[in-house]
Write a structure and sequence with these properties.
Radius of gyration of chain B: 26 Å
Structural class of chain B: alpha+beta
Helix content of chain A: 10-25%
Number of helices of chain B: 6
Radius of gyration of chain A: 17 Å
Oligomer: heterodimer
Largest interface: A-B, 13 and 15 residues
Distance between the termini of chain A: 36 Å
Strand content of chain A: 35-45%
Number of strands of chain A: 8
């Protein structure tokens, strides 16, 4: 876990989620063929991923967090952030199972995130999609987590 | 016999009515931006990829405080989206930067008929969840406006 400071807020939050997901979400067992699936690609952006080869699937994308800020008090700034974690699979059951594993990984380690300053970490929304790209049928599941982070603001006159 | 009527909570009600439109507007602005970025992402995932130029040319532009526009900058994006009648073209057409330019010595021909709409399906997918999003924003704005100020 990386400590989160005002100067490294975006990078540190991303790194914490990325490390947590990479260590907790690796593979799932399926009741249908091929029996089990292991994440082949971890990425920070879906633009960087090659969807044209079936060998790259399942793909897990942890997007960069969004960190809109507002003034909470004279001395504190409140960050109401969100982070998207999306999994792309070639079958729907694997996508659902990976989505459950992702949600569970974050939910179980809420306390560790809170110790780093990420409070009120909750699943904000989830979404599912299906599309065909280059002859490959892709099922995606998105989990959007929201969190709150506070830091001491610089005072100006 | 004198009668006095005391109405309690008017101050809070005034505050609520004052804050509700502001919070609602802020919430809707934020959510409409998020909606367009989700449409952009869906469209990019659905866009056919050969060189990746079409996919990367799908952008969201913000105009003013609350207007978001989805733009497909690639010139052949419209043909992929809208489609066209199957026809034969010189293969050189596909290689030149400005499509439709006259080719003098065409040696090989190719039939073009396939098209893959990507913006309409992306919009369809996201529009189906728009009402849920609006509900969420409205609920959040009401809660925020009703919060008692100290």
């Amino acid at each position: 876990m990386v400590s989160i400071t005002k100067s490294t807020i975006k990078n540190a939050i991303f790194k914490n989620f990325y490390d947590r997901i990479k260590s907790q979400v690796t593979s799932v067992t399926l009741s249908i063929s091929p029996g089990s699936q292991t994440i082949q690609t971890y990425s920070s952006s879906y633009s960087d991923v090659d969807f044209s080869s079936k060998d790259n699937f399942p793909i897990l994308v942890i997007s960069s967090p969004r960190i809109p800020q507002e003034q909470l008090s004279f001395g504190k700034t409140q960050v109401n952030g969100t982070i998207d974690i999306e999994v792309f699979c070639t079958n729907s059951q694997a996508a659902d199972k990976f989505s459950d594993t992702i949600n569970n990984a974050i939910e179980t380690y809420k306390y560790e995130f809170a110790l780093l300053g990420l409070k009120n970490l909750e699943l904000d929304s989830d979404d599912g999609d299906f599309f065909e790209n280059g002859g490959i049928k892709v099922h995606s599941r998105l989990s959007r987590f929201k969190f709150t982070f506070y830091f001491n603001r610089t005072r100006s006159f | 016999m004198p009668t006095s009527i005391q109405i309690k909570g008017l101050y809070e009600l005034n505050g609520f009515l004052r804050n509700l439109p502001i919070n609602l507007r802020n919430g809707l602005n934020k959510e409409s931006g998020q909606f367009m970025f989700d449409v952009q992402k869906s469209a990019r995932l659905r866009a056919p990829k050969n060189t990746g130029k079409l996919r990367n040319s799908i952008i969201v532009k913000k105009e003013g405080n609350s207007k978001y526009i989805l733009i497909v900058q690639s010139p052949y994006g419209v043909f992929q989206e809208e489609g066209f009648t199957p026809h034969v073209i010189p293969i050189q057409y596909l290689k030149q930067p400005s499509p439709g330019k006259f080719v003098k010595k065409a040696t090989r021909f190719i039939t073009v008929s396939k098209f893959t709409p990507f913006v309409a399906p992306a919009l369809e997918h996201n529009l189906s969840k728009l009402s849920q999003r609006m509900n969420k924003v409205t609920k959040s704005a009401i809660n925020k406006s009703g919060r008692r100020k100290k």
